[in-house]
Design brief:
heterodimer; A: 433 residues; alpha/beta; Rossmann fold; Coagulation Factor XIII, Chain A, domain 1; 2 domains; 6-stranded mixed sheet; 9 helices; 18 strands; 33% strand; elongated; B: 263 residues; mainly alpha; 13 helices; 0% strand; globular
Chain lengths: 433, 263
């Protein structure tokens, strides 16, 4: 197997301007610094020491957060920028779906733009002539092809750009997050086109945030973070390790937002600020007499460790720490779980579950353990409260705590009932995803 | 550098279609469209005629009609000046292409020069019509020099346009400086006054140091006076322009990699 794209130990350093962004000729001449100004004064490594090879005919995915160097890598492969060090080798004609319709001139018609764009991408006039109908049909713009491009909607503009770029018939296709350009139908058409490319043994380098696309489409994947290659190889594995990292940073984010929400809600008030607010209205806040105070709320994973990110079906426990200033004999612990739309997914308390309070004094823990978190993917907020049986609040924390549920299945709804599918023998499915 | 230069030949399809686009887009949506390419120089010629025959009549011996004489110099000057100012801004204006597409940057300033050359040709037809109206027929033996003059100017303007475009990416004020330099340069060149006036002759060394002097004189001699006496200077300028072109292209090539980041 030969490599169609090969990067070996490639680094790319961008210059950053430190207050000298608008360098003037005068100052450059006066300080005799023309040549010096053309060199970077402060640098920013966009890629550091990245190596990977894409075999001919394979599809390669690059994933990573925003600003991780994905697009820089693509531009290096496309030859738009040069690496600061290292070697980039590419074999065959490249077409880069980076900025669709970058060369379009708004004043002239779609037809003329197709020709000029095609020539820019390396086609001859003759070749464009031959493919013109195909391009226009693919872009679904037959009625508008003679109108100036400035009258196009952004979707039309992108579709035309995509159609031209894909019909260049490259050996190596570079794709930068462009599948979001059209409606559902157009996206499918693009995916079909990619599939056709694969069948014809063309090489595709795909930069995307759509992890499922990487898993479904790619033979190999690379995960970039802050310009470094974190992992590369089997797409499933790379996506998994990327997701693990994303969860970690999400945990940190949720931890800090939760801490802030609790802090902001700290002012002492006996009643909700808005008396009309009730159980089913989603406004954050905290109120109560604080005779019994909630001092800490934590979501625990199956190992008893505090966490903010859980997977569908995982066990989860909500641990509530309270401190009673003096002993009380009338108390109810309550929990409510709300989804991002503010819909109550589940709510309960110890009174509803017919537990008769007897005594609570000093520091105490209450743990609400969920055997299996059967929720769909999303962000959930939690109410935690301790109050009297008649509803008088000791300490009511309204929507102050947030956790996230992840799922590999894109199912929808509020609640994910435990389920399984079964079929009569004449219904069959292909193996794998 | 040489291989890049050789690539330039491969881009001729791209260059010609971009020039076409430039011309089409310029007048798209205007009522007169392409006619403007003729109307503009025609109006200019009428204004000059009026000023120099009625307002401040110019009676210099041997350069009558004066407006026609000036027009012979102003047309190529306009090509030169617009080429440089468009060319200097061309990389900045085409930033999208340089940043997002694998695109040979030198094409952009070259397109600026060529698109303005086409406008020059349009203006030339107006000039030819008026030369005939005034019965000034250039001699065929002189007309051989006309394409030479155009070629020399093409090389000279392209060289400067490449240099200015590359520098303007890093020093934006070049475009403002250029506007002023061009005004000064215009008056320092014997275009609206004949070079054989005694006052000009006093400083002829200074005037000879101005490259565009030789182009202006060549055009005036070929088209207006009908006797080319300046061809040695023209050829020398041609040779100098070729050297200049290589020097400017070298600078452009050196700065090429910085364009995608600095635009």
């Amino acid at each position: 197997m030969t490599a169609a794209i090969e990067l070996s130990r490639v680094s790319k350093v961008y210059r950053r301007y430190s207050g000298k962004q608008f360098a003037t000729l005068k100052s450059a001449l006066l300080q005799r610094s023309i040549l010096r100004d053309l060199r970077p004064n402060e640098t920013f490594p966009a890629l550091s020491d990245v190596s990977f090879a894409v075999e001919k005919g394979s599809t390669y995915g690059v994933i990573g957060r925003n600003g991780s160097g994905k697009s820089t890598a693509l531009k290096l492969v496309a030859g738009i920028t040069k690496p600061t060090s290292g070697i980039v080798r590419v074999q065959g004609r490249i077409s880069a779906l980076i900025e669709l319709g970058a060369g379009f001139h708004p004043e002239i018609s779609g037809r003329e733009n197709v020709f000029i764009n095609g020539i820019m991408l390396g086609l001859s006039k003759r070749e464009i002539q031959d493919r013109f109908d195909e391009i226009v049909d693919f872009a679904e713009l037959r009625e508008f092809i003679d109108a100036p491009v400035k009258t196009y909607s952004s979707g039309m503009y992108m579709r035309l750009g995509f159609a031209v770029a894909i019909h260049v018939d490259p050996d190596v296709l570079l794709v930068d997050e462009v599948l979001a350009v059209g409606d559902e139908a157009f996206t499918h058409k693009c995916l079909d086109k990619f599939a056709e490319f694969r069948r014809r043994n063309k090489t595709i380098l795909l930069v995307t945030h759509s992890l499922s696309l990487v898993e479904r489409f790619c033979d190999e994947a690379l995960w970039l973070d802050a310009g470094r290659a974190m992992d590369l190889g089997d797409p499933r594995r790379v996506v998994d390790s990327y997701l693990t990292k994303v969860e970690e940073s999400e945990e940190q984010l949720l931890a800090s937002t939760t801490a802030r929400a609790v802090e902001d809600a700290a002012p002492l008030s006996e009643q909700p600020a808005d008396p009309t607010s009730n159980m089913f209205q989603a406004t954050e806040g905290r109120w109560g007499s604080r005779e019994v105070e909630i001092t800490d709320v934590a979501f625990l994973d199956d190992e008893g460790q505090p966490s903010f990110v859980f997977h569908t079906g995982d066990p989860m426990a909500i641990r509530v720490r309270v401190r009673a200033a003096h002993a009380v004999d009338d108390f109810v612990f309550g929990i409510g779980i709300f989804n991002a739309d503010g819909v109550c997914c589940y709510g309960t308390n110890t009174y509803l579950e017919e537990m008769n309070p007897q005594r609570l004094d000093g520091d105490a823990d209450a743990t609400f353990a969920i055997e299996s978190l059967d929720l769909v993917e999303g962000t959930y907020k939690v109410d935690v409260a301790i109050h009297k049986r008649d509803g008088f609040p000791y300490d009511y924390h309204r929507l102050l705590y947030t956790f996230r549920v992840k799922s590999r299945v894109r199912d929808v709804g509020i609640y994910r009932p435990r389920h399984r599918w079964s079929f009569s023998p004449n219904v069959t499915f292909k193996a794998g995803r | 550098m040489l291989s890049n230069l050789a690539n330039l030949l491969r881009y001729r399809g791209l260059i010609s279609s971009l020039v076409g686009r430039e011309l089409k887009a310029r007048y798209r949506g205007s009522v007169f469209g392409f006619l403007w390419s003729f109307i503009n120089p025609l109006l200019l010629l009428i204004i000059y005629s009026f000023v120099f025959t009625t307002v401040i009549p110019n009676q210099v011996e041997g350069v009558q009609p004066y407006a026609l004489f000036m027009f012979c110099g102003i047309l190529p000057w306009t090509w030169f000046a617009t080429s440089l100012s468009d060319g200097a801004g061309s990389l900045l204006a085409g930033g999208n292409l340089i940043k997002k597409v694998l695109f040979p940057a030198e094409v952009l300033p070259i397109v600026s020069v060529l698109a303005n050359m086409v406008h020059f040709f349009f203006g030339l037809t107006i000039l030819v019509v008026f030369l005939f109206v005034y019965r000034r027929y250039p001699s065929p033996s002189d007309l051989i020099w006309f394409p030479v003059a155009i070629l020399v100017q093409l090389i000279f303007s392209t060289a400067l346009a490449l240099l200015l475009a590359a520098l303007a990416v890093h020093f934006r004020d070049i475009r403002d400086i250029l506007a002023n330099v061009l005004t000064l340069w215009f008056f320092a060149t014997p275009i609206i006054y004949p070079w054989f006036q005694p006052n000009v002759q006093k400083y002829h060394a200074l005037f000879n140091a101005n490259p565009f002097t030789h182009l202006a004189i060549a055009y005036q001699e070929i088209l207006f006076f009908g006797r080319i006496g300046h061809w040695r200077w023209l050829l020398a300028l041609g040779a100098g322009s070729i050297v200049l072109f290589f020097a400017c292209y070298w600078v452009f090539d050196r700065l090429r990699d910085s364009f995608a980041e600095a635009v």
